[in-house]
Amino acid sequence: MDASNPLQQLLVRGLGTTSLVADRLRSVTQAWVSSGRLDPAQATALVDDVLASLRGENPELEKQTERQVERNLDHLLQDLGLARQREVDELRGRIDRLEQQLRRLRSDSGTNDAGSFSDVPD
Q1: pTM of the full predicted structure?
Q2: Which residue, 2, 3, 29, 63, is most buried by CB atoms nearer than 10 A?
């Protein structure tokens, strides 16, 4: 392994972590089978599903996880009182439409005085 290549180091560490997770999962499921908490077929299916997910072979689980992360992020930002980028973009669009309506109203009336909206730039 090339010690000066951080990408290679990251990849090797990721593989090592995945291997450790797989080994630990196998030992935990074996313990559950031994204690009668889990059926051997269920243990095998659980290990296979988790390992498939780690390899990126389970798109449905990935979608579920992504949706859950999105919900958690939405809740966190809401709790912090922060807006997501799409919300800011939506508000910008609404402001642009309102400014266009105001300009149309001003041009239709033939004057630049729009009463209480006079502080809005053209």
Answers
A1: 0.38
A2: 29
